[in-house]
Write a structure and sequence with these properties.
three-stranded antiparallel beta sheet, 7 helices
Length: about 270
C-alpha cells in the first residue's frame, strides 16, 4: 500500500481505501476514497498542509482538493494552534470560527468551544441547529431566543453581522411568547398579544414579566372560551409559584379582548 493508505471492505465485500496521517502523536483520519491513488493523494495534501505554515486557510477555500474543506480546517487548526478538533473549527484569540462551508464562517466565544467541538452544526434554509439527545436544537435557543423569534423584532446582532454568534453581539429584545417591546408616547412598554384570527392585543404593561404572565392568562381564557388552538405558554423561572399566582391574579386584560372572547363564545353553535 502507498503511504497513508489502508484497504477496507464494505459489507458487500467491495474494497475501498481509507487515508490517515499522524501529527503530534495524533492519528488523524482523512476520509474514504474509491482508489488507492486518491487516498494517497489526500495523504500528501494533508502532509503538505501540516508542514507548511505559509499556506493560509483562506487560500485553501478556493483550491481544488481531495480533502473535504472541513478536514482542511481541522488540519490547519492543529498545525497553527496545536489542538486537533474534529469539527471544522479554527481558533483565534478569545474566539473561534466554525466553517459550515468554504463561504460560511460563523464566530463564537471561546466559552462555547467544548460544546461545538462535540456538536456538528447543520443548516436547513436559514436555520442553524445541532442534533442533541435525538432532538434538533437551534443555535439561537442557546441565547434564550425561541424558534418563533423574528430577527430585528425579537433579537438583533449588535454589529449587524448575522454570522457573529458571540454573546456580546446578540441582543435579545423579546424573550417570551406573545410579548413585544414597543414604545408608546415615548415610553418603553410591553404588549401581550395572542393570535386568534389575527393578532389581538391582550394588554400593555410596564414590564416584560407582567406581559409574559398576561399572555399566559390570555391563552387560558381563550381555551376556556372554546378556542381549540394549541398555544405555547411562557415559563418564568425567576418567579416562585406564589409570586406567579399573585401576579396572575393582579393582571387585568384588555376590555376589548375580553369582549371579543365573550362574543366568540356567544356566537359558537350549541350542541
Amino acid at each position: 500500500m502507498l503511504p497513508g493508505v489502508y484497504q477496507a471492505k464494505k459489507k458487500n465485500g467491495e474494497a475501498y481505501y481509507r487515508s490517515s496521517i499522524t501529527f503530534m502523536n495524533k492519528h488523524i483520519s482523512l476520509g474514504s476514497f474509491q482508489t488507492q491513488e486518491r487516498a494517497h493523494g489526500a495523504y500528501l495534501e494533508a502532509a503538505r498542509l501540516l508542514a507548511d505554515k505559509n499556506i493560509p486557510l483562506e487560500q485553501m477555500a478556493y483550491r481544488p482538493c481531495l480533502l473535504k474543506f472541513e478536514k482542511i480546517v481541522s488540519l490547519i487548526n492543529v498545525r497553527d494552534n496545536g489542538i486537533y478538533i474534529k469539527t471544522p473549527i479554527y481558533l483565534h484569540h478569545n474566539y473561534f470560527s466554525y466553517y459550515l462551508s468554504e463561504k460560511e464562517e460563523y464566530k463564537f466565544d471561546i466559552d462555547d468551544l467544548f460544546y461545538y467541538s462535540r456538536h456538528k452544526i447543520m443548516k436547513r434554509g436559514n436555520h442553524l441547529f445541532v442534533n442533541e439527545y435525538g432532538m434538533q436544537t437551534t443555535l439561537l435557543s442557546r441565547y434564550g431566543i425561541h424558534s418563533f423569534a423574528v430577527a430585528g423584532r425579537d433579537y438583533r446582532f449588535a454589529n449587524g453581522d448575522e454570522t457573529d454568534y458571540r454573546y456580546s453581539n446578540i441582543i435579545v429584545i423579546n424573550r417570551f411568547h406573545g410579548v413585544r417591546s414597543v414604545t408608546r408616547k415615548g415610553i418603553p412598554c410591553y404588549e401581550a398579544r395572542i393570535h386568534i384570527n389575527g393578532s389581538l392585543l391582550a394588554g400593555v404593561f410596564d414590564s416584560e414579566t407582567k406581559a409574559a404572565v398576561a399572555y399566559n392568562k390570555a391563552v387560558q381564557l381563550a381555551i376556556s372560551h372554546g378556542m381549540k388552538k394549541k398555544y405555547p405558554t411562557n415559563f418564568l423561572p425567576d418567579l416562585s409559584e406564589k409570586e406567579y399566582a399573585a401576579l396572575y391574579s393582579e393582571i387585568k386584560l384588555s376590555k376589548k379582548f375580553l369582549q371579543y372572547l365573550k362574543e366568540k363564545a356567544d356566537a359558537a353553535p350549541t350542541a
